[in-house]
Amino acid sequence: MTATPALPSGASNNARPVTVPDFLAAKAQGKRLAVLTAYDYTMARLLDAAGVDAVLVGDSVGMVVQGGTHCLAVTLEEMIYHTRLAARGVRRALLISDMPFMSFQVSAQQALENAGRLVKEGSAQAVKLEGGVRTAPAIEAVVGADIPVMGHIGLTPQSVHRLGGFRVQRDEAELMEDAQAVEQAGAFALVLECVPAELARKITSLMRIPTIGIGAGAGCDGQVLVTHDILGLFDELRPKFVKRYADVGQAIARAVAGYCQDVRAGTFPAAEHEFR
Ligand code: KIV
Q1: Of 167, 187, 233, 266, which is the most buried if we count CB atoms within 10 A?
Q2: Are residues 213 and 265 in the same domain?
Q3: Which protein residue's CA is at the shortest distance from atom 8 of ligand 1?
């Protein structure tokens, strides 16, 4: 195995890396941004080679990798670990790491220290923090140390118990206030999760930073989805806003069944798989 493996066909090693200023420029130019999640080297490398603008190491790792019913148990150490794995696969996309539950809520100082760990130990290029008005001081502290921050409002999965489940968020006044607080605190982008499309469009039109929607309609400046959802790797939740682009889960099931059958029938390994 070589130290720097070749990229899949179609990928370019030479493409200029996507930066935080590129996100802001995309908004000004009306270019839509495509973001997906990854938690390891292999997936990050595939997404990067296929041309996503950013790879998000989301705390959704707690559900689609760790098998939890929510993401509250994900630790900072786990996020650092997964970010470091993903970083090895990313050459062009912006690498953003999620700050997990209770890694930034205690104080702005705590947020700054833990964001610093995601950058220093995980190689993140930016971090994402959930929450609007009440998270603004933490965002300001992190941005003050030159660590770019992506905000996240609407359905914030770390608030699942307060919200009473994963529900569409419709309080226009609260969402407007949260969006403004995040922008004023210095964030470079804002995730809008599960917000009615018309409201998301309105928020987007009022902001200087790009909005990245998930379940927030086509009026956002970009979109983010959980990769396991679009590939059909995670079936326990099927949110309305997910579009499935492949059924990799089925493909894996077929491949594994074929392998088991061959082993049991003695048809694998064949002569070409043996050493002479
Ligand atoms: O954790 C995550 O993957 C996320 C995105 C889906 C926005 O927060």
Answers
A1: 187
A2: no
A3: 58
Say if residue 69 is in the same domain as residue 125. yes
pLDDT cut 90: percent of the chain above it: 93
Residue of 70, 83, 214, 243 to mutate, ligand 1, most atoms within 8 A of C-beta: 214
State the total domains in the chain. 2
Residue 16 shares a structural domain with residue 130: yes
Whether residue 108 is predicted with pLDDT greater than 50 in this model: the reply is: yes
- The CATH number given to whatever domain includes residue 100 is 3.20.20.60
Is the CB of 60 inside a 6 Å radius of any atom of ligand 1?
yes
Q: Ligand 1 centroid vs 273 CA: distance in angstroms?
A: 42
Which residue in the list 174, 193, 198, 236 is annotated as catalytic?
193
Please say if 274 is a catalytic residue.
no
Q: Do 90 and 130 share a domain, yes or no?
A: yes
Q: What is the token pair recorded at 175? A: 């969402």
Please give the residue range of the domain that contains residue 258: 248-276
233 shares a domain with 199: yes
Cβ(211) – ligand 1 distance below 6 Å: no
Tell me what pLDDT residue 14 has. Answer: 64
> What are 117-160's pLDDT values in tens digits?
999 999 999 999 999 999 999 999 999 999 999 999 999 999 99
In short, whether 59's Cβ falls inside 6 Å of ligand 1 is yes
* pLDDT score at 19: 98
